[in-house]
Amino acid sequence: MPDRFVIQLHDATALHYDFRLEVEGVLRSWAVPKGPSTDPAQKRLAVEVGDHALDYADFEGVHHGGRGSGAVIVWDAGSYRSLAPERPFAQALAAGHASFWLDGEKLRGGWTLQRTSGGAKPQWLLIKRRDETADAGRDPERDEPRSVKSGRTLEQVAREEG
Questions:
Q1: Is 142 left (phi over 0), alpha (psi -120 to 50) or beta?
Q2: Which of 41, 102, 139, 144 is the most buried (most CB within 10 A)?
Q3: CA-CA distance, 45 to 87, in Å (whole number)?
Q4: Mean pLDDT (whole number) for 143-150
Q5: pLDDT band at 132 (very low <50, low <70, confident <90, very high)
Q6: pLDDT category of residue 9 using cuts at 50, 70 and 90
Q7: Average pLDDT estimate for 26-36
Q8: Greater confidence, 161 or 4?
Q9: Angle, vertex CA 60, rays to CA 57 and CA 64, nearest 5
């Protein structure tokens, strides 16, 4: 059974996308300020954040209190598989370079996470690989703003559940 991925659009201190991959029973997570790009020339900053429980993949609503306060939608979801299946995916992440294939409702194709710095909040680059799904002219953040779970926008969730 393939592992899951989810991308949650989160309007907290700053609007960002939480990119989450199921790895060894948890959701490994990165905050991607500009969201994923389908253009391989656009390398997107991805700041590693704490792991989340698997059931968080379905969360859509409003967080109250604390730094993460704000509305959240499930912007994209699906499954993923490693593009280097001979090596455990957790090992690839530990080494700082992991390539994978997303099969989501909005995003498909090959992607790479490349660590650029360590420390308390390691920084990575999220890069779309050059394949048949790459599209420099596509802007899924602008053109596909609705939740794949509920069909609502971030603003609707904030208004209805805030």
A1: alpha
A2: 102
A3: 25
A4: 97
A5: very high
A6: very high
A7: 97
A8: 4
A9: 110
Residue linked to tokens 């992991």: 98
Specify the number of domains making up the chain: 1
First to last CA, the chain: 36
Range name among 62-66, 130-134, 146-150 with the lowest pLDDT average: 62-66
Q: What is the DSSP string of 85-154?
A: TTS-HHHHHHHTEEEEEEEESS-EEEEEEEEEE-SSS-EEEEEE-SSTT--TT--HHHH--S-TTTS--H
Q: Alpha-carbon dihedral of residues 88, 113, 24, 65, nearest 10 degrees?
A: 170
Tokens of 139: 């802007």
Q: Which amino acid is at 139?
A: D
The pLDDT score that the predictor gives to residue 162 is: 66
- Mean pLDDT (whole number) for 113-142: 95
Token pair listed for 83? 């593009």
- CA distances (Å), origin 16, targets 12, 45, 102: 8, 11, 19
**Residues in a beta bridge with 97:** 114
Q: Which helix (H) or strand (E) holds 156?
A: helix 154-161
Residue 89: count of CB within 10 angstroms of its CB: 22
Look-up of token digits 């968080």: 56
